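HUMAN: You are asked to prepare a plain-text protein record giving the amino acid sequence and the backbone structure tokens, both parts labelled.

ASSISTANT:
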Amino acid sequence: MYALRKTAVVAAALLAAGTALVAGPALPSTAAAARPMENLGRGVVAVRASGTSVLITWRLLGLDPDGIGFNLYRSTAGGAAVKINTDLLTGGTNFVDSTADLTRRNSYYVRPVIDGVWQPASESFLLSAGHAVEPVVRVPLRAGGAVKFTWVGDLDGDGAYDYVIDRQTSPQTIEAYKSDGTFLWSVNMGPNSTDQDNIEGGSATVDVGHNDGVTVGDLDGDGRAEVAVRVANGVTFGDGSRHTESDNTRQSIAILDGRTGAPRAKAPVPADYLADGPLYARFGIGSLDGTSNSLVAYMKNRIGNGGFNLMYTAWKFNGGTLTRQWKFLRGNQDLPDGHNTRIVDVDGDGKDEVAEIGFVLNGDGTLRYSLADEGIIHGDRFHIAKMDPGKAGLQGYGVQQDNPSGLREYYYNAANGTMIWQHAEAGVGDVGRGMAGDVDPRFPGMEVWSFSGLYNARTNQLTEPDTSLRPWPQLGLWWDGDLSMELLNAGKIEKWDPANPKPTSSLPRLLATWNYGAVTAAQSGPTLVGDILGDWREEAVYTNASYNELIIFTTNQPTTTRLYTLAHNPAYRNGMTLKGYMQSHHVDYFLGSGMTKPPRPNISY
């Protein structure tokens, strides 16, 4: 187990001490307003990397000035802290401690130094005496049922990510825990969550199929995260109050206090499709106006035994009232959706758009473009990222399910939907997986792949001629410290080597999560992937088989690469609020081999 001790709030002092950028030129005077982001602490984390060494990593924040350095301190068995680095640490925000007495407990913290001025100390991370050699942080949970999803947000404003989980019981529950595992509250989703059919379930059912109906983020800008949840008759909130509707079909959206689980505001779900039953939902958070966060709700139900109604809504929470900004009904328009939503600024104007696999909505709820005219239909996976570092803007990549034209995958301009290339094959095929990331440093930019081979997105060229040797297209993970992406597949962190490509079943394995007691959740995946601790590398969150512990895998490998925390990149942080079918998140700059230093994010704390 571990404990976190807040000793100071660092961000204000850092901002006051210097104005140099983390990277890139100063923003022009015509730039969009800075969007609010979480005021995170350093996220110090330490793991036993070997029998004799500890790897300590910590965050570089999005607004840290150039030249910021760090000193690292260790306290053994509660004794006086000693500085363990010789020279100021100005490279990667990690350090290998090979001098600790690991039979005793050791706590670590960092002190930033800006222009020779020492800043307040960070929070401390405690590594227990005789701790196991494992790249894992373990967070205790109450006893309960299986967990499908984990969300993170700073529920209490202390700069550390706290955890919200679901319980796939009957009825279902949602639980919140502080960063150290202290239980905060539980919401019972009630009798209307017992029907857990993944297409036409109960009006309060969450987290089935590609639906969730829950998300976590700071919606009112007060520095503490709220929990948004789609509710129905019979839901009991964290303060014991009960939600009522006039019948068991009508639904509302509730904004819960992250510290207590009490409802702070509610608003009814529009009744346009009420005659066809309750609506399942996918929730996410983004800045549609570039200045404050909005809750975005994808909501859907079946029309009889045939097609589906689809409604998008956006909501503002001002700390007391939840107000609907807009509503978009698909109706009879040819607008293909899929199993994931992405909220990202596709045109670089500082305001987020809402993207589906086959269409994009502007931040004001109007249709930006549809890919239906390009032959795109429903599919299981799509990505929006800076795949081509030499081309302005972001690119999209998606795969198709049973497209009658034989289309398997496609690559396009994310700002306007212009198609760049498509791959079709004979017959009709269901392409169930698709992935994007830089896994082959021989080719500039990202690779994209499904089951038809590994292609460099920019050139539309196979980087591995033998298509059977492409990686499995599941999830990516930044883990080992180089700038090529690792792979997370069915509990295995793997490395695809272009110089020695292997079939999926024979890829070199960096670790297997089950060796540390973890069990996979939905679709053989984690409950969350995201940069939630330490430096810019990502964590993968699982539970144990008893569901009374979060097992958070965090890197045990040092790196010289220095990047600000991915959680301070707006596109990436938006992605962490979205579920659906579990997908990798992407930053809005090119992250991969040969990358240039990313620009400073246009954010405020």
Notes: Residues 1-30 have pLDDT under 50 and may be disordered.
